[in-house]
Amino acid sequence: MVCLGNICRSPLAEGILTSKLDVDNVMVDSAGTGHWHIGNPPDPRSIAIAKKHGVDISQQRGRQFSAIDFATFDEIYVMDNSNLENVLSLATSNADRAKVSLILDHIFPDENVDVPDPYYGGNLGFDNVYQMLDKACEQIALKLKF
Ligand code: 4NP
Predict the structure, then answer these.
(1) How far is the CA of 27 from the centre of ligand 1 (A)?
(2) Tens-place pLDDT, residues 15-53
(3) Which of the residues 16, 37, 68, 146 has the least number of beta carbons within 10 Å of its own beta carbon?
């Protein structure tokens, strides 16, 4: 799960997908394309909205996406088109590129929809983001189980 800061959207996506999968069989992680929040916990608003839905993301810590992630992970879900561009700029093969998808493509195929960055908005933005990510992760979990 990849966003810009790895403190708002992708930690939520990591927590939500983890809650829908058997973690003995799948490794879910998140990262940011930016470096500003390396080592930091998620934004308190993300922690709060996740907690409201029974998901604990408070122990996550920020890290930066790197080219090594292409070797580590089979699937890379990005939150918006800017993340997509940044992640694809680190890909070195068609196999790498094939791993990357916009997360909302999994509920709105080919519509190219971004998860809006809620960082500069209010709590309503986090609620909205949670709902979108929950629906997308539901579809992703179904795909990963089969
Ligand atoms: P995120 O939100 O990409 O969903 O984690 C952001 C958090 C922090 C910043 C940008 C986006 N920032 O510029 O610090």
Answers:
(1) 23
(2) 999 999 988 889 999 999 999 999 999 999 999 999 999
(3) 146
Atom index in ligand 1 nearest the CA of residue 115 equals 4
For atom 10 of ligand 1, the residue with the nearest CA is 5
pLDDT at position 146 is 62
What amino acid positions are annotated as catalytic residues? 3, 9, 117
Which residues sit with their C-beta closer than 6 Å to ligand 1? Answer: 3-9, 32, 36, 117, 119
| Ligand 1 centroid distance, CA of 70 (Å) | 22
Q: How far is the centre of ligand 1, averaged over its atoms, from the C-alpha of 145 (Å)?
A: 30
Which CATH number is 53's domain given? 3.40.50.2300
What is the number of domains present in the chain?
A: 1
3-state secondary structure 31-67: EECCCCCCCCCCCHHHHHHHHHCCCCCCCCCCCECCC
pTM of the model: 0.97
What gap in Å lies between CA 22 and CA 125, rounded to an integer?
A: 29
Domain range enclosing 88: 2-144
